[in-house]
């Protein structure tokens, strides 16, 4: 188990976007700023990859540095049997789309992968995603 990755990620559990254009959650803005994505101006910019990058960079693990979830397909190395704390990359909209989602592996069953991630219902939480959306598990 990658205790240190999950321990840091869990310190952010419940962090959520602030709705509307007037205010942004400073914790989410910190993820962007600390990974060098200083051009981002609001917490409504997709931030799942920013969250995973921030956790990994903070602990001096490999990280993609990019805001696209699929950038994680080139970070670390592929594993077949994930352990808690490994990175999970999912496709979004279609398997051939550039869009995706990324977070930390918690567990899985026959139908779902349970992911601790950011921008899951606009917050950091654990959410179940269908196994059929899996692109890869990666270890950083």
SSE blueprint and pairings:
Layout: H1 3-10, H2 26-34, H3 48-58, E1 77-79, E2 87-91, E3 100-108, E4 112-117, E5 125-130, E6 134-139
Antiparallel strand pairs: 1-6, 2-3, 2-6, 3-4, 4-5
Helix pairs in contact: 2-3
Please explain how this structure is put together.
It is a single chain. This protein has 140 residues and is of the alpha+beta class. It has one domain: endopeptidase fold (from Nostoc punctiforme) (Alpha-Beta Complex), CATH 3.90.1720.10. 20% of the residues lie in helices and 25% in strands. It contains three helices and six strands; from the N terminus they run H-H-H-E-E-E-E-E-E. The chain has a six-stranded antiparallel sheet with strand order 1-6-2-3-4-5. Strand 2 and strand 3 form a beta hairpin. Helix 2 packs across helix 3. The longest helix is centred in the middle third of the chain and has 11 residues. It starts with a helix and ends with a strand. The model has no long low-confidence stretch (mean pLDDT 96).
Shape: globular
Taken in chain order, the helices and strands follow as: HHHEEEEEE
CATH architecture: Alpha-Beta Complex
Report how far apart the termini are: 12 Å
- Major sheet: size, sense and barrel closure? 6 strands, antiparallel
| CATH fold-level label | endopeptidase fold (from Nostoc punctiforme)
Helix share bin: 10-25%
**Strand numbers in spatial order across the main sheet:** 1-6-2-3-4-5
């Amino acid at each position: 188990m990658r205790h240190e990755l999950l321990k840091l990620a869990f310190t952010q559990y419940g962090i959520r976007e602030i709705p509307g254009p007037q205010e942004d959650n400073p914790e989410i803005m910190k993820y962007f700023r600390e990974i060098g994505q200083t051009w981002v101006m609001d917490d409504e910019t997709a931030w799942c990859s920013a969250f995973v990058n921030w956790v990994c960079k903070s602990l001096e693990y490999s990280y993609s540095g990019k805001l696209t979830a699929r950038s994680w397909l080139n970070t670390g190395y592929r594993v077949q049997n994930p352990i808690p704390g490994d990175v999970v990359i999912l496709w979004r909209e279609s398997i051939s789309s550039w869009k995706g989602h990324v977070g930390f592996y918690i567990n899985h069953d026959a139908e779902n992968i349970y992911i601790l991630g950011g921008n899951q219902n606009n917050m950091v939480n654990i959410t179940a995603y269908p196994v059929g959306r899996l692109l890869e598990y990666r270890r950083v």
